[in-house]
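[job 4417] fold queue: 2 targets
>>> target A
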Amino acid sequence: MYQYRLKRDGLFRSRSTLPPSTVCLISSHCCSCLYLHDLVLCLRFSDGVEGELDQRAELDVPILEPLKNIDFFRQFRIDPDLHTLVWPNGADFAPEFLHANIGVTASRP
């Protein structure tokens, strides 16, 4: 299991019922990610869950503003230590946030 501390800058406050200082234990992490179109990604997690994630509604925070540019948005990578998506400007999303917000299209054993 991995421990992640939610960021204090409020990036996840709108979707999370947890206070910003809460430590979350998760058993899955982001294994792969493919760009589909616009601001939509296809994510796969270590627990076999995979699905699409549309990021349009999440980009109204200053650090995420650059992600509205499709060319910049496509520069994501999976950080090997954090096991989540990160961008060159330091923006990222907690893996538990991504996992909770994907539209599940399949689950692999």
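>>> target B
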Amino acid sequence: MAPVCAEVLSLIGRLYAIEADLPQPHVLQGEQQAAALAQRLAVRQEKSAPLVAAIREWALAQRSLPGSALRKALGEDPGRYLLHAALAAIETPGTVTLPSSSD
């Protein structure tokens, strides 16, 4: 595996690890569900947001590579594209369906 790929895969793996440790609000009700949702938001803002920013910076660096397939796929807003892809994968474990850059 190319070192540049290992870097971003490590960041994505860290996002998955954060998500795995969060409570699952869909199995809770009432105040417990509200508390779980608040905790998820706080953890995502504190821990996930810096990782998403690092992934965005990585993606922006890859856009500079001439002829890069990633550059073409990312289009104008790589952060939005990657965040959408990461959240889709987290929300639907076991699937990896990447959105098109026009989503």
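[job 4417] complete. Note on B: Residues 18 and 43 are 8 Å apart (CA to CA).
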